[in-house]
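Example record

One chain of 313 residues, shown exactly as stored in the release files.
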Amino acid sequence: MIDLDKALTDFATRRRFRSKGPLCVALVVTDHARKGLPLDPEKLLTAQGGQVLGLGKSAVQKILEKHGITRLLASEGGRTSRGSIDNMRSYVGLLNELHATSIVDLDSVEEFWIRQVEAFFAGKPFKLRLDSSLGLRAVIRNLVGQAEERQKASAGTMYHGMMMQHLVGAKLDLVLGLGNVTHNGANTSDQKPDRTGDFDIGDASIHVSTSPSEALIQKCAANFDAGRRPMIVTTRKGVVIAEGLAENIGIADRLDVIEFEQFIATNLHELGRFETEQRRIKVGELITRYNEIVDKFETDPSLQIEIASGKAS
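Predicted structure tokens for this chain:
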């Protein structure tokens, strides 16, 4: 007998069905399955073949309302979400696989996805407040401060470090262009043979850390031995710690240690050409790219960032 809840949980984790687009797909395809399993994924495409059949705001909200949920999950019902067709195909594959081994209780399946929707709504995103009275460093500081506070209240989840890593990754994408930076989940080890840091670009090995350790400094020393140029991006307190540890093993003059807020803010000023409106646009692009990275590489939707209304800094 298949453990339905475990099978769905494993699938949702593996395929990252935690954000609004994939959740919309799961709800609508489950509804299609009520007409009979197995499903043919080719018959779940629109006539033009560019969208998932029936995937839209009204269909999704109708399913949610059956469970007493009136909040809007997605303005387009996930229809315009990139990857919806691939998500549909993979989910159809799961349902057909389950059907081949036992009778699938679609009511239980739908209830599972409703719980995921409820978890999505419960995961409040961080807020970036663009205050014209504050400098960009202070704006970034306030943002990561939220992550620090949430981390204190949620032992075991490194919100601060995850946010820093993916903001750095998003900034690198803005500077270097999409496709030139390899991203990984924050918990992915950088000890793999093909990784020398959180980001490997050119001959640089960039390490992002909230609190540099002796082990990290030893990694940097190993980077030098391998002909790489290590760089540490860290907090204000972390800069002092890293420089002291680097001094202890004699690499302080060779190692670049950069304060995180400055690392982000400086490029936003430059990319925005030191103009208020352009700066606001670049901040928006940074957060959009950050959210895309989080959506692809992390499973916790509460890591997402929303820009609160207000004037640009």
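Notes: DSSP finds eleven helices and six strands in the chain.
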